[in-house]
């Protein structure tokens, strides 16, 4: 029997597919067994030469080419609409397309350029994709909920339906960006896999046996397939960094209050112990920087009451470049490496990627010490409580709108029905515990000044984003490596390092899992399945170090050849 | 019958009094009827000439004189210990004294100076008083609770008892400040009057018929009597600004996250919808600036996980000076004035002070428009909810430790016993409402760019801190003028303007109160009682505008002769 939610979900799924121009539809979608990797040559076969050239140029390069008059905004937009259409058919990464509106903006931009002989802003003609939490006028936001179809965040007659735009969307338009699609998310947003009852499962384009990550998994997959040069996701437990890492992209999880979240849809909105933050993912570090820096140039602190009055600080960025150019030993960067958090050890490809970054940095003359922080266990317990303060009320209400079932991934976090909510006192106690842990961690970070040899504490901490290159479906069992960063509200950048290699990446003979959680991760490793998957690391910085960490991402990316 | 809490309170009260050196004890304390105003000549009679000179020099002047070698840190410390001792006897403003420790630090500072021919830091030898929320080693923190006597925040065997120091205390010591006393607060901190079962009631030294304000009321009274050149209070609903205003002082309520609150005692600690903030009060604007700027120079963001990485920004301060020096009309400052919030009208002296500031600014060539913001009623309801999220659990537990009764002022806020706590969902809803109001207010602020003639929105909003010059005992009936600033998390500076004058300050003939709340304030006005009381205003700036607002405070203070 087809229930109401099923037919509504199917209608929406069809509508997404039908929104892709007929000329760009694929006759046949190969299975993962037939075609594991759909990036590179596979997707290129459906594009012409100029489309390939455009879509394989990064956001910075596109901005330059359009500003130079080499490419029109329209031709760039068309190329990305085409490639995004292919991407969606291959891995289910889109929730909304609005190609006509995008082409109309592109035309206006070209017209402006022709008339004024200059760009409208630093993102003039650059296509930017958006996670399906951003409100864009004339476009729906479902966030993966069947019950949100045809509504504004679940409310049918809300006057904002179809007209409201998130603050960031307004700022991107003012910068000249071309908005053209919104990307898939797991319903509730609280998963490292992207799955919902509308589009199904978003697969990893580099390896369609594994997930694209989540919750900004559509962004990860789309940008991974170069169907977008860069886009914005959000991160409350790893949701920018996980898809960036799993798709071989650069990304940043800024400190809360740096970039504007104002006017976006969210889960458990109003929970303010651990805030979700918005940030960019892109194919190059310099593109992530461009997207961060240009948004800050829009003075978001005058438009979002939670944003801090802090423009892009060139001096903080330059300080990194000055150090890496200097040859003095006092002038080196210093890092710590956390090979394991002591709770779950990373699988072999991830351990190899972490080691490769350490090796690259030490070879370049920088110092890397061991990170021995206060146990993350306490912090993870604190952070995970914030996800269930309301006992699941908010997400269960959203499911209740349509009667749709929870995915297995979400069921494991939120159960079949809401449970008892936290009281104000319990929330306060958790906030105090969190602050106390943050203080302890901060003091530990300061204490590394004794070890670095520079008299200053480490500049960043190199560690995994997840214990695996990417999770296999329904096997995302451990979030500790991403969540600790949210609990501390640190700035973190993701850097792609390598790909899994079945000939190199094996657990050592007789490996003994350190506990049950580690055992799960150990048992879910399969060198054959993972072969070819992207492997990335994150470098974690202190609060409000976006300029510094992006400079480090660019530098380290260069060192390891990305 | 003398109960246990009464004898414990009395013993503590006696201990405070006995901690004042015998030589500084007053034979007789005149009643308010006998001696309304104990500032100026009255208190001076008990001091020698040099003590008067030292204690009537502001913090900046003291720092200069000590740095020049004119005064020793010891002589400065002794003078302030003496004057603070007199102050406490006259108005009950101290909870703790630690003069011996202060003199020992002063001696060390003098020794350092003699040896190195330079100061240890920019506050070398400057006495700084602290509200009784700061933990200082070897000194108790009762926060006015009988049940906290002999404990660490109510816990008897806490290892931090007697040894722990708040982050700010460490930073002040590093700057060379001399710490010597902690000042009175209302139990719970949630009152604009300072009253508790230990020290009783802290009176306004300029007019002992009225209150000294709260909750940093001991700071206000002590600095008002020049028993301290400057000190630190905290503000969650006006607690820095109210005592600053009521005692003719300058003060600043910074945006949350600017100055370090780490390691301080608090009420409802962990409630994080509206955060209490720490900030200085002093006799001059430049001293408030000195205390703010020097703390920021200690990089508190490396020691307090809630502080934002934002050093003192000279450019923001200089921009104000550049504008006021410029003669161009485009270069003027622009303000808005909120003569009334539409809920309660200010009493005549306050209305006159607001008008005087507007007149001074317009005469100096600056523009002042009318402030017509979204109704504050919504915001006040949101902010007041945050005070009772836990239904009074935290404060009732503190009272329960000793069985002491609540003061009338606190009973009206927290009742006889705890009530139902807010749930996580209710707190989230309130957080969403708050953010939405903040956004609306921010947009209104931006919109004033259309009215100012400079193309920029107003630089600040001039308005009352309270509807009265100071409250009469048990008549602090309306907090709207201070609380709206906390709800919006704006930076606000207090500027003393004038004193109440019974010959000038009368309600207009036939004044009709606009509602019941206004009626209370109207009926509580008495020109005779208020005669001579300080009258102040606040100028409210946007978030994170401490440098700008302190420059404005200094400039406006100069314009009106303070």
Automatic annotation (TrEMBL), chains A, B:
Instruction: Alphabetically list the UniProt keywords.
Output: Hydrolase
One Pfam family, short name: Amidase
Q: What class of enzyme is it?
A: hydrolase
The domain of life is Eukaryota
Which EC number applies? 3.5.1.4
Could you tell me which InterPro entries the record lists for this protein? Answer: Amidase_CS (IPR020556), Amidase_dom (IPR023631), AS_sf (IPR036928)
Catalytic reaction equation(s):
a monocarboxylic acid amide + H2O = a monocarboxylate + NH4(+)
* Ranges of residues in domain Amidase: 76-550
Report the family membership.
Answer: Belongs to the amidase family.
Query: What is the protein's name according to its record?
Result: amidase
Organism of origin: Exophiala sideris
């Amino acid at each position: 029997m087809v229930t109401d939610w099923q037919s509504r979900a199917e209608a929406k799924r069809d509508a997404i597919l039908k929104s892709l121009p007929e000329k760009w539809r694929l006759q046949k979608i190969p299975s993962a067994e037939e075609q594991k990797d759909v990036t590179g040559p596979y997707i290129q076969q459906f594009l012409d030469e100029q489309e390939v050239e455009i879509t394989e140029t990064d956001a910075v390069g596109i901005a330059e080419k359009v500003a130079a008059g080499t490419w029109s905004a329209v031709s760039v937009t068309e190329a990305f609409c085409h490639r995004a259409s292919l991407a969606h058919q291959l891995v289910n990464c889109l929730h909304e397309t609005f190609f006509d509106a995008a082409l109309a903006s592109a035309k206006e931009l070209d017209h402006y350029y022709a008339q004024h002989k200059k760009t409208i802003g630093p993102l003039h003609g650059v296509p930017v994709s958006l996670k399906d939490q951003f409100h864009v006028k004339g476009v729906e936001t479902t966030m993966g909920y069947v019950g949100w179809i045809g509504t504004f965040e679940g409310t049918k007659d809300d006057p904002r339906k179809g007209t409201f735009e998130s603050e960031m969307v307004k700022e991107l338009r003012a910068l000249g960006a071309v908005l053209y699609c919104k990307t898939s998310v797991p319903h509730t947003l609280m998963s490292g896999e992207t799955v919902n009852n509308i589009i199904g499962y978003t697969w990893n384009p580099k390896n369609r046996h594994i997930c694209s990550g989540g919750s900004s998994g559509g962004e990860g997959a789309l940008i991974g397939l170069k169907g977008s040069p860069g886009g914005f996701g959000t991160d409350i437990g790893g949701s920018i960094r996980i898809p960036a890492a799993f798709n071989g992209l650069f990304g940043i999880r800024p400190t809360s209050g740096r970039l504007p979240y104002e006017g976006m849809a969210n889960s458990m909105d109003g929970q303010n112990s651990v805030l979700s933050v918005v940030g960019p993912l892109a194919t190059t570090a310099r593109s992530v920087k461009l997207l961060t820096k240009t948004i800050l140039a829009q003075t978001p602190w005058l438009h979002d009451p939670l944003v801090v009055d802090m423009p892009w600080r060139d001096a903080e960025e330059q300080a990194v470049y000055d150090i890496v150019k200097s040859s003095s030993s006092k002038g080196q960067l210093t890092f710590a490496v956390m090979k394991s958090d002591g709770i779950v050890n990373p699988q072999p490809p991830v351990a190899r990627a972490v080691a490769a970054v350490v090796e690259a940095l030490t070879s370049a003359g920088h110092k890397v010490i061991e990170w021995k922080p206060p146990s993350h266990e306490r912090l993870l317990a604190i952070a995970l409580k914030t996800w269930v303060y309301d006992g699941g009320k908010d997400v269960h209400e959203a499911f209740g709108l349509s009667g749709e079932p929870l995915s297995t991934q979400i069921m494991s976090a939120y159960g079949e029905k809401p449970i008892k909510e936290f009281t104000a006192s319990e929330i306060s106690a958790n906030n105090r515990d969190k602050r106390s842990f943050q203080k302890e961690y901060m003091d530990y970070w300061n204490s590394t000044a004794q070890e670095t040899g520079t008299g200053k504490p480490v500049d960043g901490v190199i560690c995994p984003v997840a214990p695996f290159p990417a999770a296999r479906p329904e096997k995302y069992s451990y979030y500790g490596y991403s969540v600790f960063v949210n609990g501390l509200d640190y700035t973190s950048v993701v850097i792609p390092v390598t790909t899994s290699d079945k000939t190199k990446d094996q657990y050592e003979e007789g490996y003994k899992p350190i506990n049950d959680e580690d055992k799960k991760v150990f048992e879910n490793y399969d060198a054959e399945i993972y072969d070819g998957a992207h492997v990335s690391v994150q470098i974690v910085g202190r609060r409000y170090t976006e300029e510094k960490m992006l400079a480090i991402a660019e530098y380290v990316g260069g060192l390891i050849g990305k």
